[in-house]
């Protein structure tokens, strides 16, 4: 009898021993994979990368946290006849998109913003031969040109706008508008640039967590918090958050922003790891999720500025770098746009490509406006 008990005890001990050994091996393996970025989701270079670089206007954004005074720009930012014709053409065929372009122009008086919004529409309508043919006729603009256009369509050309994910995301952003605007003031990064990068992350979260989205996020119209290795509404990794903070302390670092930003992430306790995680996972206040995103973007912009390249008005590039991380940020003349792939309504977008479409779509620009460029 005692022998049987010993055998059973030995077997139980062996099972527990091997079980813990296997669990330990799994955790150790995951750590190694994460450390060497082997768990990162593979992305791709956007097929429209050449278009993004070819149609870049190298102008800097002027950040103005208060009301934008457009008077000074009105005279020098008038639309030329070619761009005006393009906008009228788009408005006649795609009224929703045309209205957003005109609204943005009225607000900013920036012909550059209007031109980029037109280019975004033309980019996603390359297969629409009718619209493209009409746009080409703007080369020989005449006052009677718009009289030859067809009956307009009521459908917005940006497919993701009709998705249930966007409707939920839109409402969530509006709920967070005061926090986003505060982060924009604290960081000096335009609010529309901030949300352009995190919008792709939210789409990816919603589309990869369909059940949670349908049962929880969609009914409540709130943003999704990242899980597992990425946290908060922007999906910031703990190691990335630490790197963002460290960059602000090292005066010799290429991402160093100056003494004004050294204490922006100061902690209240000595247990910084716990406090950092609490900041990123706070469901009631997303301030730090947006702030880490904004400071990451600001550090990247600074790095590229120091190398002689301005990407402050390149939401597609900034979102791509936000997705792939500091280590992949190498300043160069023609940066690649891409990153993780996201499927919305059976169409595949890249992280950076989706950010570009949102930024220049004009969606919710009445709440998160364009900044004036010159």
Key features?
374 residues, globular, two-stranded antiparallel ribbon, mainly alpha, 5 strands, three-stranded antiparallel β-sheet
Please describe what this structure looks like.
The chain has 374 residues and is mainly alpha-helical. Helices cover 55% and strands 5% of the residues. The strands form two sheets. The protein has a three-stranded antiparallel sheet with strand order 1-4-5. Strands 2-3 form a two-stranded antiparallel sheet. A hairpin with a 2-residue loop joins β4 and β5. α6 (111-124) packs across α16 (351-361). Mean pLDDT is 80; it is low at 30-39, 57-76 and 142-154.
Q: How many strands in all?
A: 5
Helix/strand/pairing class, anyone? mainly alpha
β-strand amount: under 5%
Largest beta sheet: strand ordering? 1-4-5
Compute the gyration radius: what is it? 24 Å
Shape: globular
Major sheet attributes: 3 strands, antiparallel
Contiguous helical run count = 16
Order of helices and strands: HEHHHHHHHHHHEEHHHHEEH
Distance between the termini: 90 Å
Mean pLDDT: 80
Q: Give the fraction of residues assigned to helices.
A: 40-55%
Spans of 5+ residues with little confidence (pLDDT < 50)?
Answer: 30-39, 57-76, 142-154
Give the topology.
Layout: H1 2-35, E1 43-45, H2 49-54, H3 71-74, H4 81-93, H5 95-108, H6 111-124, H7 129-136, H8 164-175, H9 177-187, H10 191-208, H11 210-220, E2 230-231, E3 236-237, H12 238-247, H13 272-280, H14 287-306, H15 315-324, E4 338-344, E5 347-350, H16 351-361
Antiparallel strand pairs: 1-4, 2-3, 4-5
Helix pairs in contact: 4-5, 4-6, 5-6, 6-16, 8-10, 8-11, 9-14, 10-14, 10-15, 10-16, 14-15, 15-16
């Amino acid at each position: 009898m005692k022998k049987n008990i010993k055998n059973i005890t030995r077997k139980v001990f062996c099972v527990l021993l091997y079980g813990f050994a296997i669990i330990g091996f799994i955790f150790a393996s995951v750590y190694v994979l994460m450390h060497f970025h082997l768990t990162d989701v593979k992305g791709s270079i956007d097929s429209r990368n050449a278009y993004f670089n070819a149609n870049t206007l190298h102008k800097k954004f002027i950040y103005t946290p208060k009301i934008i005074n457009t008077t000074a720009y009105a005279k020098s930012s008038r639309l030329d006849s070619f761009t005006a014709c393009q906008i009228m053409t788009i408005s006649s065929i795609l009224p929703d998109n045309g209205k957003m372009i005109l609204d943005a122009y009225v607000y900013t008086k920036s012909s550059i913003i209007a031109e980029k919004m037109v280019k975004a529409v033309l980019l996603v309508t390359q297969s629409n031969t009718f619209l493209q043919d009409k746009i080409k006729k703007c080369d020989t603009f005449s006052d009677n040109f718009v009289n030859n256009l067809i009956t307009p369509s009521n459908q917005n050309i940006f497919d993701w706008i009709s998705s249930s994910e966007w409707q939920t995301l839109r409402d969530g952003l509006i709920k967070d508008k005061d926090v986003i605007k505060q982060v924009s003031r604290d960081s000096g990064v335009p609010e529309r640039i901030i949300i352009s990068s995190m919008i792709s992350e939210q789409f990816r979260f919603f589309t990869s967590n369909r059940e949670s989205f349908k049962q929880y996020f969609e009914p409540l119209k709130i943003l999704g918090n990242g899980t597992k290795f990425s946290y908060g509404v922007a999906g910031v990794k703990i190691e990335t958050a630490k790197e963002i903070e460290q960059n602000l302390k090292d005066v010799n670092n290429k991402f160093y922003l100056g003494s004004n930003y050294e204490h922006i992430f100061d902690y209240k306790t000595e247990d910084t790891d716990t406090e950092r995680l609490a900041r990123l996972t706070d469901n009631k206040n997303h301030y730090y999720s947006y702030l880490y995103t904004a400071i990451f973007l600001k550090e990247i912009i600074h790095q590229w500025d120091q190398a002689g390249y301005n990407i402050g008005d390149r939401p597609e590039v900034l979102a791509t770098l936000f997705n792939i991380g500091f280590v992949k940020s190498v300043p160069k003349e023609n940066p690649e746009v891409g990153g993780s792939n996201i499927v919305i309504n059976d169409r595949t977008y890249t992280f950076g490509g989706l950010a570009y479409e949102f930024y220049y779509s004009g969606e919710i620009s009445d709440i998160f406006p364009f900044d004036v460029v010159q």
